[in-house]
TrEMBL record:
EC top class, as a word: hydrolase
One GO-annotated biological process of the protein: phosphatidylinositol phosphate biosynthetic process
Similarity comment: Belongs to the inositol monophosphatase superfamily.
InterPro entries: DPNP, Inositol_monoP_metal-BS, Inositol_monoP_superfamily, Inositol_monophosphatase-like, Inositol_monophosphatase_CS
Reaction equation(s) it catalyzes: adenosine 2',5'-bisphosphate + H2O = AMP + phosphate; 1D-myo-inositol 1,4-bisphosphate + H2O = 1D-myo-inositol 4-phosphate + phosphate; 3'-phosphoadenylyl sulfate + H2O = adenosine 5'-phosphosulfate + phosphate; adenosine 3',5'-bisphosphate + H2O = AMP + phosphate
Keyword Oxidoreductase among UniProt keywords: no
Organism the protein comes from: Acer yangbiense
E.C. code: 3.1.3.7
Taxonomy, superkingdom: Eukaryota
Name recorded for this polypeptide: 3'(2'),5'-bisphosphate nucleotidase
């Protein structure tokens, strides 16, 4: 079925027909009416606004990053006032922009550490940052959030997600390590409807507007700040974060794996299939879902993510990136070639690793991954 032919705007008479039809016929059209026929325009606009406003808060903190801004969570990953501030702001903006919709958000951070004795100064700093950002934006009058409002906004991200209804999925700062280093990070926001990602926004404040390649080095001279956004069936666009016009982006059309360039995460990652594919170019190693954004515009051809055994991937680390790449013509799968399933709650339940590339290269890549995994297993 051609998905595009079902994209009907709400004012057209077919929609009345479809909703009448789906009320009387209890089958899959109901699902189609929520995930394909729906335009998600309001939600898309709200998501772009939320991710752009949150980016301003993050930029301000990154510029003035003080050692005391970096906390440590139990898993020892760094979490900064900007992670909390970004999460509070995105929740605030989405609730304000979509007041008539039930609100559910699955997000990375929670307020537990901020409620502990001794965290009052940090909480006050986060609250001031959130209020300053809202006030500079100017869309919400003279509203001022209290520290309790900020804690509640952070904790609205406690939803479990799942396969029913709508859930926002938020990583308030993805690539916190890159953020702390003054390098790449992303604010990643997606919407799930009945377990499927229907829209995604990636705000990448430090990503150059021009293509990056294997000699990429973070530099203050380049023009930076990209907003990627994608909606189901409608393609992927990139816009400078300063607001000028969006352009449609596409993944690379490269068919020969020897010419393909790789993105690598900075986590411990297996790099085994590269030799098999004859890849020559050195990998581009950057933090965060900026990798998905860069791949969606053809900067590189392949992103493999094979973390250590036992690591469970979270949906907020991939939901926005996944739709940004697939709507740009790419493919995202696990090591067995299955698409990622975002309907199982906050964790992705997948076979070993994540493979991101274009449709032409995917079969060779899956084969190389499979062979490498078999070789590795037989050598143990
Ligand atoms: N050992 C590990 N293996 C895989 N992913 C990890 C990891 N440790 C942390 N992560 C996740 O990897 C994300 C960053 O991805 P990347 O390595 O591509 O920059 C982190 O997101 P946060 O920075 O939001 O915590 C975190 O969720
Ligand atoms: Mg984290
Ligand atoms: Mg993350
Ligand atoms: Mg994060």
């Amino acid at each position: 079925m051609n998905v595009n032919c079902l994209r009907i705007v709400p004012s057209q008479p077919q929609v009345k027909f479809i909703s009448l039809f789906s009320r009387t016929h209890n089958y899959s059209l109901l699902k189609l009416s929520s995930s394909v026929v729906m335009s998600y325009d309001k939600e898309f606009a709200a998501a772009k606004k939320a991710a752009s406003i949150a980016a301003r808060l993050c930029q301000k903190v990154q510029k003035a990053l003080l050692q005391s801004d970096v906390q440590s969570k139990l898993d020892r990953s760094p979490v900064t006032v900007a992670d909390y501030g970004s999460q509070a702001l995105v929740s605030f903006v989405l609730e304000r922009e979509l007041p008539s919709e039930p609100f559910s958000i699955v997000a990375e951070e929670d307020s537990k550490d901020l409620r502990k004795d001794g965290a009052q100064d940090t909480l006050q700093r986060i609250t001031d940052l959130v209020n300053d950002t809202i006030s500079i934006d100017g869309s919400y009058g003279s509203i001022t959030l209290s520290t309790e409002d900020v804690l509640k906004a952070i904790d609205s991200g406690k939803s479990e997600g799942g396969s029913h209804g709508r859930h926002w999925v938020l990583d308030p700062i993805d690539g916190t390590k890159g953020f702390v280093r003054g390098d790449q990070y992303a604010i990643a926001l997606a919407l799930l409807d009945e377990g499927k990602v229907v829209l995604g926004v990636l705000s990448c404040p430090n990503l150059p507007l021009a293509s990056i390649s294997s000699d990429y080095q973070h530099s203050a001279d380049k023009e930076v700040g990209c907003l990627f956004f994608a909606k189901i069936g409608a393609g992927t666009y990139m816009q400078p974060l300063n607001g000028s016009s969006p352009v449609k982006v596409q993944v690379t059309a490269i068919e020969n794996s020897e010419e393909a360039s790789f993105f690598d995460p900075l986590i411990r990652n297996l790099d085994f299939p590269k030799q098999k594919l004859g890849v020559k170019a050195p990998p581009v190693r950057i933090d965060s879902q900026a990798k998905y954004g860069a791949l969606s515009r053809g900067d590189g051809a392949i992103y493999l993510r094979f973390p250590h055994k036992g690591y469970r991937e979270k949906i907020w680390d991939h939901a926005a990136g996944c739709i940004v790449v697939t709507e740009a013509g790419g493919v995202v799968s696990d090591a067995s070639g299955n698409p990622l399933d975002f309907s199982k709650g906050k964790y992705l339940d997948l076979d070993i690793g994540i493979i991101v590339t274009n449709q032409k290269l995917m079969p060779a890549l899956l084969k190389a991954v499979k062979e490498s995994l078999e070789e590795k297993a037989s050598s143990l």
